[in-house]
Amino acid sequence: MNTPADESQNRDRVRIRQLPTGVPGLDEILGGGLPEYSFEQKTAATLAAHPTVSHPAGLVPLESILCTEELSRRPARQPAHAVENRALAALAQALADSPRTILQRLAETVLEVFQVGSAGISLLTEDAKWFYWPAIAGAWKAHIGGGTPRDFGPCGDVLDRNASLLFKHIERRYEYFLPVTPLVKEALLVPFHVAGQAVGTIWAVTHDEHRRFDAEDLRQLERLGQFAAAAYQTVESLTALELRRDAALNLMEDAVESRQTAERLNQELQESEQKSREQSLALVDLHRRKDEFLAMLSHELRNPLAPISNAVHLLRLRKDEDEDQRLVCSIIERQVTQLTRLVDDLMEVSRITTGRVQLRRDRVVMSGIVERGVEAAHPLMDQRRHELTVSLPPEPIWLVADAARLEQVVVNLLTNAAKYTDEGGRIWLSVKKEEDECVLCVRDTGVGIAPDLLPRIFDLFTQAERSLDRSQGGLGIGLALVQRLVELHGGRVEVHSSLGKGSEFVVRLPLSTLAAPLAEPKVAVAPLGPSRRVLVVDDNQDAARSLAMLLKAAGHETATAYDGPTALKTAAACKPAVVLLDIGLPGLDGYEVAKRLRQQPALENLTLIALTGYGNEADHRRSKEAGFDHHLVKPVEFPKLQAILGTIAERT
Prior knowledge:
The chain is of the alpha/beta class. The protein has helices at 4-14, 26-30, 39-48, 70-73, 81-97, 102-114, 154-161, 215-254, 259-316, 323-353, 366-383, 403-419, 478-488, 541-553, 564-574, 590-598, 617-625, 638-646; strands spanning 118-124, 130-138, 147-149, 165-168, 186-194, 197-206, 362-365, 387-391, 398-401, 426-434, 437-444, 492-497, 503-510, 533-537, 557-561, 578-581, 607-612, 630-633. The protein has 3 domains: 4-230, GAF domain (Beta-Lactamase, 2-Layer Sandwich); 287-324 and 526-652, Rossmann fold (3-Layer(aba) Sandwich), CATH 3.40.50.2300; 362-510, Histidine kinase-like ATPase, C-terminal domain (Heat Shock Protein 90). The strands form 4 sheets. A 6-stranded antiparallel sheet has the order 3-2-1-6-5-4.
């Protein structure tokens, strides 16, 4: 039986001690103070019952519980960038809204994204002798406030090697984890640094054999480790700033310090504020890089959509098309349209949240906007056999608005209703005038919205409960776009719903104060015009060939090129009337090719059309400056391209 002295020695060696006092910002980081009792107190009885815990010499060596190399040998997964970006966006918003609780929010995010048993943060104390746990989520959450020794524990191993490590059954070496239940099956730990110094680890733990980590888990956890460093530094800076402000106020009120001390503190305060400004600039840079990533993602997704869309158009032109072929073509068209809309929504939400949307306002009639929106959303409702009832007023309702943006509002509301209404359900769309407002209402017989979700239904990435098959699809940005676009028009949107009783979205927009015109102008439809000689240039050979085939089937003479130098040679040889030119060409890009084509006297009447996956306003402006006459975003709508070709005058 152990003597009191033996037990004291054991506890000194292996105890998981209470968080130390005097750690800067600790209360604030934890969001409400330390636990009333230590982890040491929680486990004292169990430790006394396991005297062998105190003898590290009898335990297994470190290498026997390390299995980091297995990560590269396990089946690989595609990077989950969408999940990762949503998590980082939510964490960035949480950091802005409530920086005091960001570490706990980070632990909860790791738990949710990785679908593990426990997750948390370990921070090194000022004396570098202990790791303490300010944030834990999952099965181990009750142990917030505990910690492990720096010189004999998995967090210390990670810092010693300055590398991410994967452990299995850590209690075989560090037996002080035996009282911590459930036991560890695998533990993935990643270090994070501030100003070049290791300050802690971020970790995820599995408690059963069915969940095993892989290389994608490591990549995502290392990304979150980078965010952990930024979050820790931000909280530390805010805390230090407030402490210094309080100190300065106390000095001024008590008048017990000299002017020199006050000036020194003021200088420190300015330095802290400068640090905060630098961090704000870093967040701005993070937003910029996010926008660049979305633009790249949009481009990469649009490129393969273009040849798919072209191929479907070609199949539609076949005279021997049977019923099965028509069905397959319809399916492909619907899915291409849906994916294109998702890409457009991603880019749109980025522009709106950063205030870079410019409305192209004009006097428009609401009925035309509704008709085009219904036409765009009809394929999804037909697929789910919904009954749509549209009610429009006999007199036109005029608005001063961006028709394309409001059409997007109508499409998103109808699409949302179709997604959450069972097959065979009903959807109603009505428009009416109430005093000085136009009121658009979309109502359905769908599943409804839970009361706790209603206040957040217009938040970015908010979605109702999903089944595992995610049959409704989407990214949770459609309704957020609706609210932002309506507010940009000076309107407002509201929702009424209850579970099992459907939903009703009501949009209110200000009416135009100008008098209605006596008659709507007649728009002459331009003929498609004669055959043109068209050069298609795209490094995606499938896209170039399929579009050339489609143009040839429409009666045009075509040629193709797959890079910039070849495009210049082909244009000089065949002297086309039109060049459809991809911008993202390797080596000699589309902008440079366009400039060189404009310098050739023999091609002075050439029409240049940019055909690209980049579609924001800056891209349109740059293509115009490079000499392009038109800018089309992939996958191009072929009727729109035909209309442009029909307006091109004969070459002289």
